[in-house]
Amino acid sequence: MSDTGNKLIGAIKDKGKTLEAEMSFFDHLEALRWHLIRASIAILIFTGFAFGYYEWLFHTVIMGPARNDFWTYRTMCDIGKMLHRDFCFSEMNIKLQNNEMAGQFTLQINSSLLIGITLGIPYLLWEIWRFIRPALHSAERKAATGFVFYATFLFFLGIMFGYYVITPMSVHFLSTYEVSSLIENRPTIDSYLSSVATLTLATGIVFELPIIIYVLATLGVMTPKLMRSSRRYAIVIILIIAAIVTPTPDMMTMTVVSIPLFILYEVSIVVAAMVEKRKLKKPEELANI
Fold this sequence. Notes:
By secondary structure, the protein is mainly alpha-helical.
């Protein structure tokens, strides 16, 4: 009878621990839900702002790479004049079309949402950091200080590079390329917006490579030694990524895109080395982690 009672008491204790763990898990889910709700509200606010000022955003930002007086085209032409070379882009005459009844209204909503998401990324990262921060030890918090700043900086650096370098070169090439003079290029507004958004956002995500390497190095998946020994393979992968990101076959565009990726890879090696150095601290220092 005593053994049966002990087993019963043990079962009740185990059940209590299980319920406590489940409650803790659901508490974390609830906390994460509110973090995501606040981030969604911020994105909706930015979306509403973009929707309200859409006329200026459309003509100045979205249609910027389709205009002949865009900053990139003027800068390339000025550089060419200084080097006594012709870097000036030919005149573009892009005529967009809409084939759907609600196409322009859908365009305004979709592009406003894309702008809202882009501007809301820093706040989303901050909410994610607020969620994971309590689970970190003091040394881990110290090591991860600046996560939101660096992730945001790299993302918008990639956005700017994609918007001012990759997008105008791709738009110019694709809009002026023709198989025959009998075919007139008249892309739909959805096709144009999709190209601009994909090239810009994809570059912003690619520029997060050092942050990704930091996480992988912290988990022990990536090491600086492995990255140095794999540099030749990384070069091939970078060239493939550059070819995918830039839908143009010319080597100049691929080279312009590849150079920042090579730099990011080398920076990622330095980041992985810093993480490894931190892991090789004295035992008494690691005991505080």
